[in-house]
Structures are given as C-alpha cells and as structure tokens.
Amino acid sequence: MNSDDNFLDVINQLQDAFITCRKSMSLTSLHKSIETIHRLKITVCREVNDRVPVNTLPDEILLEVFKQSLLRKDPCRTVVLGFRSYGRVETRPLLLLTHVCRQWRSTALAHSVLWQRIDCRNLEQFEEFALRRSAPGPISLFYLVPPSRLHTSNLLFPIPSLADRLRRLDIAYPAEAGYDNLHERLRSMHCPNLECLTVTKSNASSDYANLAVLRTLICQAKLPRLCALAMTHVSEWLPSDLPPSLTHLFLSFLHYNGIPLSSILNILAHLPALEILHISHYNQVAQMADGQHGEPIQLPRLKLIILVNMPSLARSLALMRPLAIPSSCRVYLHHLYRSDSATSMLADSVISGLPATENTNRLTLDARFSNLEIVADGPSSGFWLNVKLSSAAGTEEDRSVWLSGLPTMFPLSTLSSLQLRLNLPGSTIAQILRETICLTTLEVMIVFDDATQHGGADSEDSLIHICHALSQDDNRGSQSILCPALHSLTI
User: Which of 70, 161, 179, 182 has the fewest CB atoms nearer than 10 Å to its CB?
Assistant: First the structure.
C-alpha cells in the first residue's frame, strides 16, 4: 500500500470511529477533536499551497513579479522631475502583496530589496521601512521638505541617520524655501555612498530681476560616489567641485537666470566620465562671444547630449561649440525657437562640423508651416533637431535660403536614404538632390500651407520639376543625372 492509500485509509478509520463513539464522547473531548482536526486541516492546506505551481517558483522569479506590480503606476511621481506637492511613494501595491498568502508575505518581508524606496513624510512608515524592512540594504529616499522645517537646523532630518545606506535622494521643496538654509544643509550633507541626487523646486513666482548672486554647492568631498545629478528650476546657484565619476547631469534653468555660460562650461570641464548631458531653458549663451577661444572641453565618454527649450538654434550650437564630443554621441535639440530672419539664421546657425552628423547616411527633413525638423542617422551616430520658426523666419523664401546651406551641414554625397516633407519649389528640392550621388531611396512629400495652394499651378509645377530633374538624360544636358543609384522613389 502506498502512502496515499495508507493516509486515506487512516482518515476513513477515524471517520468510522467518530461515528461509533460520538454519542458517548464528552463536550470537552469534542472540542479537543475539533482543534486537532483544524490543525490537521491547516497543515494539509499549507502542503497543498506549497505545491501550487505559482508557489514553486524560486524567490528570485517571484521577486521580479512583485517588482512589476510596484511599477503599475509608471512613472512614479517621486521619480520624474518636477515639483509635485501631492507626489508620494506608492506603497499600497506592495502592502497588498503581503496580504495575499503567508508564503507571499514571508517572501516579501524576507527580501529588503522591495522596501528600499521610502517616503519621508509618513514618519511611522519611514521608521518601519527604513529601520526594519529595508535594513541592512541600500535605500532610496524621497523627501518633500515640509513648511515647518524650512528654517530649522534639521531641515534634512532623515538623512544623517541613514547616510551610509543612502543610494538615491530626491529632494523637493517649494519656492518659498529659505535658499540660504537649504544650500547650507546640502553643502554639509555627507553621504559617502550616494549615487543619485535630484533637487527640485516649484517654479518661483518672485521677481527674476532681483535674484541673489551666484552660489555654489560643494559635492565632491562629501559625495564621492555621486554618478547622477539632476536639478530643476535652477536660478541663482549651481553645483561645483562635482566628483569626476559623474556620468549623468541634468540642469533645468529658470528662463531669467543670471548664471553665465562660463560657469556651466567650468562644471563640464571637470567631468571626464560624463555620458548623458541634458540642459533645459538656458538663455545666457549669448554672454559668450563667438570669438572666444580656449582648449576644447574633452568629453570622450559622452553618449547623449540633449538641449531643450533653448531661445535659439544659434545659442544651442554656441553652447556645444566648446565641447569635444565623440562622433558616436547622439545630439537631441528640441523645441528651439527662431525669431530672426533666415538670412541671419543661415549666417550663425548652420549645422556644420558636428561630429554627430559626419557619418550620416539617412536623413529626414520636415520643413512645413512654421516648424523645422531634421533627423539624421548614421551607423553609430544620430542627430535630431526641432525648431519653432517665427513668422519672420517661416516664409517660403527664407526656408529656401536656409536649406540652400544643407550641403554644408550634412554629407549629402554619402546619403543612402532621404525623406523630404516641405512646401518649397521643385527647383529648391532639385538643388538638394544634385548632391546625393549615392542615394538609393527617396521620398518626397509636397505640403502646402493652406487649402488654396493645394491642387494649383504651384503644386503641379513642383511635381513636374522634380520628375523632370530625376529623369533628365545625361546626354541631353550639361548637368549629370540626379541620384544615379536611385532604386526606390515615392512622390
């Protein structure tokens, strides 16, 4: 008899014995029998649960499942940059997991990695998570500075006691926070293992013209392992003496700040390991004259540079000009503004000499209405540009003038793919195509500013001009045939 049959036989004998003796059993004996049977039932249920497929998963896999449930609200309000007075670390999904079953609870409580993200506003939860559930592993803190602590000596009260375990710190504070007090606390903050620091404040509504003088935040000595730094709404102070191991830097400025470009370049000059550089809303590039010379700032590991919401394309390029970046670095220039005429735009904003465009073999150009968008891809490089043109620089003639400089911006002779979406004459497009001798794929979309142009003589003339230019026989004209390697054409 196997174990299954043996156990079932014992259960049947027990049931028969109870039927025979139940009338003669005392009430106390019946209660004890119930307790014994209940304990046996719990033991059997646990054995069944242990053999359910989901409960046979190794803890490593179960933890990954738990982590996915924690990310159901993505991105977390306390991770994305930007001031959110209602932002808090979402812990409800994690707490719910601990109430599903005993095994899930024991697994979740036994692994401190699930409890590393901590919100400092709920003191009871802070103590539970920081001192018990996450110990002794590394932790990540989100701290929204409460108004009651803005002008106190313990402004950053939770940090000193956890400094050795702290890996990420996100500080958010309102505009009315005392600058002097906050700067002093950050300056004296000692976290030897901190890897990521973000400092966010609300958009100040004070008089921008009366901002305080430039301040500095010393980081290297007290934050030796810092790899990523992000600061939003920077107005009157900047970090300095950052550790050379920093790989990620994000700076978002108030539009009317008094921080000179030399201060930013001085920071970059001491960050040889920088991989990601993101600058937003900086409008002081004009303070640096184009004639200034100096040793290029070497950033050999830079993988991505992002300039967003800059006042003009020329100023964005002026900020990049002192940087020596590898050709594999991808350049992303987004939501730039252009208020000058295209003539001056051509003179000071031609995209020439950028390492990111040297090996371009696929180019997309969209010059419709008041927007200019360019995407250039290479085997190991990339360039993306989005410019908002004003009415003064958005006319057809001005766009034609600017695009006439395209051969100096990109290596058209090595392009294999070209996409054009614009509302320019066919002659302008044909002039561009004369440089694309290796082009195999061409897509041209003629787009007009309003319905009155659609279907008129201009559209017919543009299409006819492009078709005639592409089909021109070398023997019938003095100019060589356009795009001799062309395999695919869409108009």
Answer: 161
